[in-house]
What does this fold into?
Amino acid sequence: MNRSEEEKTFKDKLRREGVKIALTAISLISFIAVWWLLSIYLNGQNLRYLPAPDVVFSAFIVSLSGDPVTGLPLLSHILASLNRFVWGFAIALIVAVPIGLLMGSSKYARYLGMPVTETLRPIPPLALAGFFFAAFGVLYGPIVTVLYGVFFPVLYNVMFGVRSVDPILMDAARTQGASKLQMFTKVILPFTIPYLMTGISIGMGVGWMVIVAAEWIAAPGGGVGALINQCYSVGIYDYMFVGIIAIAILGILTTSVSRLLEDKVAQRMGMK
Amino acid sequence: MSILSFKNVGKVFSKNGEELVAIHDFDLEVDEGEFVCILGPSGCGKTTLLRMVAGLESISQGSIELNGKAITGPGSDRGMVFQDFGLFPWRNVMKNVEFGLEVKNIPTAKRVEIAQRYVELVGLKGFERSHPKELSGGMKQRVGIARALANDPAVLLMDEPFGALDAQTRNQMQTELLRIWKETKKTVLFVTHSVDEAVFLADRIVVMTARPGSIKDLWDIDLPRPRDRASSKFIALRKEILDELEVQKTGT
Amino acid sequence: MERKYLIAMVVVAAVVVVAAGILASGILTSENDPTVIRHTVIAPKDQEAAIQKGTVDGGVSWEPYVSDSVVAGTGTVLLHSGDYWPNHPCCVIAVDKNWAANNPDVVKRFLKAHVEATEWIQESLAQPGSENYTLLMEIGAKFSFRSNEVVEEATKHMHMDYNITDESKAYLANYTQAYIDLNLIPQDRLGDMGYSSVGDFVDKYVNTEYLKDANSMQPTDQMTPVDVGYLAGDLHQFARVVAESTELPGYGGESIFAKYGIKTQTPVEGGYAVGGDVMTAFNMGQIKIGYLGSPPAILRHLNNNIQTEIVALANTEGSAIVVNKDIKSLEDLGGKLIASPGPSSIQYLLLLSVAKDQGLRVQQG
It folds into this structure.
């Protein structure tokens, strides 16, 4: 009885998973099919802006060793974009985390900081890209643009984390004889880490959006955004789509990794 | 022998420029090893009183002395157990119990030894590596008690520690607490609004008046331990104290 | 031991920085292979700042950006394109092929205005100090947001010319061949589009018939609206700006376009950023006549089958390689980082050709 019940739930689970996989496959296959049909139709109308998947695939193979526009292998474009991304991200973290901790802990720091951050936060990074390029040059402009985009989600989440610390935990630490510094390192900091991870996860998404557009403006050393732009300007759209797909895969990879990490950390920290 | 003495203790909160007297003229001597329950209607300031002993609230008037020394702030010579447990969610059971020892920079080996002892005392052997979210409410409070005891405090302060538990677990925990009390011989100051709980646990019950809180009455509970809730003496005593509280509520 | 969280954060930060450093080292350090010119894409307007900041050693650009650097003293001209490729066509006027076939008269009147404006510019430039000369400088300054001085410098090296000669066609064929060699136009594309050779393509893609008849066009009061695309701030397209001006003496406050019954309108006020955008606008039917560089016109027509044809030149020459003071000769370009507006530009082709002559390779860097 028990065994057969177990078997039944297992079968149920298997069926549910099977349905999920099947639907995912149908979704992806129909997407590619629609793309394919649309491109055949458009090319038939002499509108050559949507290359068919197979054409993009052959362009992808060529791109691995070097696309005709830039001559650089796709991997170096990806590395160049990643490099800007990582730098912008790293600097944003190094700057935003301490400021967030400070603004979360001190009312006065908040009074001092909030007018500025509240003024700057709603400005989309790309609106400032022109200024960043003028001020920091084409080499550092894209990095600063990413930095700006990542800065606020991290800052605000860290600040929010510090402010969300359960007062009972603070009381508990105090009755256990913890000093001010110990309360910070042993209660506030660990409590804030899952919030920081949320900030990082949001920042990842923003970062990728920003980097492509920032590279569109200028990109010494290549970059996926630069590849897309240059292929567009020359009109070889199959290679342009290689760039688009590369950026999509990078975005999916990094955001899902950061989400997974966010989940794991929250679980590990007992917050979820 | 008195270990904890309240001398003319008062607490005044100021809110929006208005002064609110929460506690007024509270005088009490607590003997070493004694189990004292503070009982009173909600809002009478009993939790505030406990937090003053813990050093989490300032003392507006008078003084509270522990072993003859006036209390000025929090310290590990008083262990506090909270109604909502106050466990660090990112620390496992052992690490939660070790917290106070860690803060005092006690070497790891010694720390682990002490913590292990208290984890076993509260009956959580086998759960050392569990995180709070994996534990039931009763188990969480066992961790809270172990953590408070690990510092070897002179007095154990308990703020409605079983208030968040279901009735069955609550009774079970009361029995457990008495066992632990007997083994550790700690002085316990226990805040509750349950007359039943107070009668079951206490050597002495302090009944407080409504705001501003002060002592209305002191009851010495000389029922033999272990106490039987079904005994006529228990029921009678409970009713007497309950009536006293009721009178207060209706304001006569 | 929450210290471990602090340590973990520091370690993560350190790892990130180190990883970034390793990634960066491959890109930010320059490999000074003296047989290679490293090339990067930077918009002409940003090249001056990039040279000044030392991000690049030089750039290939058009007017007024070349003269910007010259007048400000932030860069020196290593090579004027006119000295290297005399009379080479640069910007052109392209039309929507089907629309032009159905509206030949409008195209001819448009070209008549273009010719008259071009000749007015030529005459004004021939008389430095005259009122018309000063007016020309002012019109150019207002359009390009530059000083009269920069505009004056710019006019010294670019030539306003509308005629498509056999020489121009030969240059256009060379550009096309260069792109085919670069694989930026697939080998079989000419055949796909029904052209038998590069020469055949240029013969068919360049249509001089409208220009031939333009001279016989007479002023008219009948106004025809025409959607026109052009590049923002580009002085190579000076003739359009002048033909648009209502300040020319002897026109009674009317523009040259208006004189010939052309009422220009543009979907993008202030102009498009690059020639590729002008071609996209053709494809979307947003414009019927466009001023743009000849390379994007050729590339996008062939690659994307955008049905256009070249009907006149806008200018010849007028591009230059601008460099910092460390570069004294063309040989010095080896191992240097040089910017261009991108692969679909005359400037890029110029850089490739110069590099080839010097025995240097061009690599994206």
